[in-house]
């Protein structure tokens, strides 16, 4: 099973730092804006655009540190497309070129963790933290790896550290809440989700997580209210429809449950069977 991780983007700052990548062999950039466009496209959230742009940049000549960043970006794009072997190769090349590329270590760690290889994932997270022990993101990512590996105590310790570094880190509170949920400490879980919502009232995932805990406690009306708010914030939030459907069913509102399950299947037609009421 491959878990879902959000890979880290290394924002390229070649032009801002005064270093300009050389154009591909046999070509010349007519203006600085052409080079800037390649940098922007390499950072694109569209993996096909990013792969094409990053590959174009890599055919040119640039400092090793910048080349490392471009490999990391392309690896992220390959991962998004599901080309996991190509992603891993790019992350490894990024680290080889720049052994201090924290984003590449974290992305490779996410690759390993998503594949259930927690030993290698933790090695890379540890290296990222050693390179910058003040980076809250690294602690959250390592905490999530611990959580997926059912080491909840260590997960909470990492989320605690992330929050100590950045007390406004809403995602860290949500993740710590999920850890407390795993311990069935529901009140502490809700306290963390509440804090995440106070920090970011538009954080749909925080409402979803709080709703799940409310449903597990049997407080179906509060759960439904949270799922409904998550859907208001993100009308395509498939998991929120699934959770609300299940909660409606528990609450005896079968017609509403069926409607939500149907909406989830509509949003995710390739996995329609997964959204049927159980």
Tell me what you see in this structure.
With 278 residues, the chain is mainly alpha-helical. Among the domains are: 1-114, Serine Threonine Protein Phosphatase 5, Tetratricopeptide repeat (Alpha Horseshoe), CATH 1.25.40.10; 202-278, Tetratricopeptide repeat domain (Serine Threonine Protein Phosphatase 5, Tetratricopeptide repeat), CATH 1.25.40.10. Helices cover 68% and strands 0% of the residues. It has helices spanning 32-42, 47-58, 64-81, 84-97, 102-114, 118-131, 136-148, 152-165, 170-182, 186-199, 204-216, 220-233, 238-250, 254-267. Mean pLDDT is 89; it is low at 9-31.
List the topology elements.
Elements (H helix, E strand, L loop, with lengths): L31 H11 L4 H12 L5 H18 L2 H14 L4 H13 L3 H14 L4 H13 L3 H14 L4 H13 L3 H14 L4 H13 L3 H14 L4 H13 L3 H14 L11
Please mark out the parts with pLDDT under 50 across 5 or more consecutive residues, or reply none: 9-31
Radius of gyration equals 21 Å
Structural class given helices, strands, pairing?
mainly alpha
Q: Quick one: CATH superfamily of the domain at 1-114?
A: Tetratricopeptide repeat domain
- N- and C-termini, Cα separation: 22 Å
Our count of helices gives: 14
The geometry reads as: globular
CATH topology of the domain at 1-114: Serine Threonine Protein Phosphatase 5, Tetratricopeptide repeat
* Level-2 CATH architecture of the domain at 1-114: Alpha Horseshoe
The chain-level mean pLDDT equals 89
Report the order of strands and helices. Answer: HHHHHHHHHHHHHH
Work out the number of β strands. 0
Kindly state the percentage of residues in helix. 55-70%
- Quote the beta fraction: under 5%
The description of the largest β-sheet is: none
* CATH class label of the domain at 1-114: Mainly Alpha
